[in-house]
Amino acid sequence: MAELQEVQITEEKPLLPGQTPEAAKEAELAARILLDQGQTHSVETPYGSVTFTVYGTPKPKRPAILTYHDVGLNYKSCFQPLFQFGDMQEIIQNFVRVHVDAPGMEEGAAVFPLGYQYPSLDQLADMIPCILQYLNFSTIIGVGVGAGAYVLSRYALNHPDTVEGLVLINIDPNAKGWMDWAAHKLTGLTSSISEMILGHLFSQEELSGNSELIQKYRNIITHAPNLDNIELYWNSYNNRRDLNFERGGDITLKCPVMLVVGDQAPHEDAVVECNSKLDPTQTSFLKMADSGGQPQLTQPGKLTEAFKYFLQGMGYMASSCMTRLSRSRTASLTSAASIDGNRSRSRTLSQSSESGTLSSGPPGHTMEVSC
Hints:
Number of domains: 1
Radius of gyration: 23 Å
Number of helices: 15
Order of helices and strands: HHEEEHHEHEHEHHHHHEHEHHHEE
Strand content: 15-25%
Shape: globular
Helix content: 40-55%
Structural class: alpha/beta
Largest sheet: 10 strands, mixed
Distance between the termini: 61 Å
Strand order of the largest sheet: 1-2-4-3-5-6-7-8-9-10
Low-confidence stretches: 1-15, 29-35, 326-348, 350-371
């Protein structure tokens, strides 16, 4: 009988020489904890080293969710409230996640030496293939905010076959014009780098209100030990090239895209303009009320619902329960189709807590839903 038990143990969980079953269980538990905490890696690229953290294990025939953060933040301060939200757990159980930190933005990063040439946003995009090659991942669903949304868009333009979908929050696809450049220079004479970045991340109304969230992020940025590195990332963002999106042209995003912006956010006009330049049959536009400049921080629940519906539209998580947002949105779309069957698939989704109405205007209409 004792021999039979030994055979069962060996077949069920092979042990290392000299390893007891108790030690094997402890090792397995430690491995699970490590997966929950994320595994951080660094890889060398033609433009320097890049750090990224992987959560979960790859799922067969499913892309990885790859995130890229905005200026002044890292992957934790930009995305943790969203990916730790309760309803998001159903999503992250179905996908491996890769959170990329822009060079010098990771926790504990050393300050770059004086005169260091920080990569352009285009070069940051060119680092992503090195990450995917290192992990042996073939396709991704990108989630980017601000500068990170630009980086993922540039990557998708260069490598369309590896991008299955994009969620772009606060994207500005345009290069700065002369007026923008002059205004930026004038602001730099009277404001600190940290204040300029806060003005990029949050609306003036939010900054004036000085909520607990604003105080938290003002403290994070102002006292960041790598503030000099953050300034380099900020300069690269302000020197970005125009993505040159053109509806119906050769330069466009080929995958499904969900554009997201907060109502009255600093980048609202830029995102609206971006929506007008993308393929309406592939693009959804989510304008979130009461979310300020960083909807992934202030409204993680609503954004999670929209993200789940976006994934369902791509053919993933079909067995997932429909959320309140998707039920309301589906009902509105069905009603709209009965009014005008030839209406474009381009959608602007504006969240409201009061009413559910749908305008009967041209493509690019605004949908009000209850959430």
